[in-house]
Design brief:
Shape: elongated
Radius of gyration: 18 Å
Mean pLDDT: 82
Low-confidence stretches: 1-7
């Protein structure tokens, strides 16, 4: 294994301890933390993946007529670019 890769995969002690405590949190709080982690990961990778909730909101808006087809497509273009 390459040395740089191994160093990149080591979790800091603070992160390890935090994740151990997270196991006792309510599911809602764990999901909130997971969302923050996804945002950090997307920023680091330069790729944004819409959450199931965001996709559902777009689908609902499209069905309700709140957003035009053009507005929905613009939202998806934003997701693809991010």
């Amino acid at each position: 294994m390459k040395r740089g890769f191994a160093a990149a995969t080591v979790m800091t002690p603070k992160t390890q301890k935090l994740l151990e405590r997270v196991q006792s949190w309510p599911e809602e709080d764990q999901e909130e933390l997971a969302e923050y982690a996804r945002e950090i990961e997307a920023r680091r990778l330069g790729v944004y993946h819409a959450s199931p909730e965001e996709l559902l909101a777009i689908d609902e808006a499209e069905r309700s007529g709140v957003a035009s087809a053009e507005e929905v497509e613009a939202a998806f273009r934003t997701f693809r670019r991010a």
